[in-house]
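Aspartyl/glutamyl-tRNA(Asn/Gln) amidotransferase subunit B: structure tokens wanted.
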Amino acid sequence: MADSTYRIQGATGDWEVVIGLEVHAQVTSNSKLFSGSATAFGAEPNSQVSLVDAAMPGMLPVLNRECIRQAVRTGMAIDAQINKWSRFDRKNYFYADLPQGYQISQLYHPLVGEGAIEIALDDKNPEDTKTIGIERIHVEQDAGKLMHDQHPTMSYVDLNRSGVALMEIVSRPDMRSPAEAGAYVSKLRTILRYVGSCDGNMDQGSMRCDVNVSVRRPGEEFGTRTETKNVNSVRFVMQTIEHEANRQVDVLESGGKIVQETRLFDPTSGTTRSMRSKEDAHDYRYFPDPDLLPLELDDAFLEECRASLPELPDAKRHRYENELGLSPYNAGVLTAEVETARWFERLLAETARAAGKQPAEAAKQAANWLISELFGALNKLGTSLEESPVTPEKGGDLLALIAKGTISGSAAKQVLEIMLETGEDAGVIVEREGLKQESDTGAIEAEVDKVLAANADKVEQYKAGKEALFGFFVGQTMKAMKGKGNPQVVNEILKAKLA
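Answer:
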């Protein structure tokens, strides 16, 4: 749960933390921002480097249309202003993994302007929300990578990432707790994955955060901030904020001053350390890139971008609640990841088809089974939904067998276990294991008569007002039928006989 009243209790009083995030998201594209080089993760070092990426003399950048399209679609997904006119600038600095000696970015005229993202403050109540402002999204090229662990005295340079297209998504300093920042990164990642503009694989570096943290007395002016670079998981973002905010409070309460600087996070110790003092923008000597014309977008391009957007997570969650009748919690769980939502919709379609129902009629059964039964079983196996041996189609067939009364809920659990082990169809398992539920009223009535005859004293007690005995009669009947009696039919017959 995010907490808007998060405070750090110092020796001299309470402190409030102020957080802004700069998220670098690698754009989904088969080639780089200004060259045709591949962008596949895990390739051999320096195997995806063109003459442009390596900054060979005379090489000119050519803008990748798909990268711009994906950035525009991302801006539209957060209701941001799309700037029809934008410009690329050179950000000049020297580093061994930056062969040009500058990075092509967008400082003054970004592609995407102000937008917003709504985060849930309580996982169990998605309506309890807070809006986090987005200041801008600009497009820029990534630098290469220094490899310090390949040689005892030298660092190697891998330029595979050099020139890869990034969207830098800059939030406003609207977050006030580690949990809010975690919720923001998770929600942003969800949106990017729905849109398809970034795969969100933080462990592979295709999405990483620069975490800006400052502290102040509640309600006072902003304090001096630090920026912790390249944090690559939601958990580490939250740890960075926790540690950095407490460190700053300790410094201020001991009479020190916070230095505006760049820091690094150490995942092993959960602490940050100083990297360098923070440079001002003028240190980079920004100026318009002379090799690139300003970028001008026409209405047809913007219309195509908007038309290509999928149903986004918030809209999908509201539809699941309003049209399918799902609880806010279930709707939130099912829409939190695009793969889960797609899996659920295939499951729902198959369940409705196989059971002869409308999707809205089958939705609650499908949602509860997916969240409670399948997720639980997969967690025990350490398997993801995408790797599940049970496909949505196989799951739909199993749920249809329950809906039709062919098998009981307890038998369905047995069937699921075998499906996860063997990948077999539910119908095959039910036939082989003899798990079909008995719905023949004649057969059930015969067993009910035997049970009532054998327990005449309890029948008298029931009719005298001891209604709790009804469960006893159901249990005895189910036991006599070895668990294969249809509980609904058993209940109906018993009620009629005992009336």
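The CA atoms of residues 124 and 329 lie 5 Å apart. The two ends are 51 Å apart (CA to CA).

Cheers.
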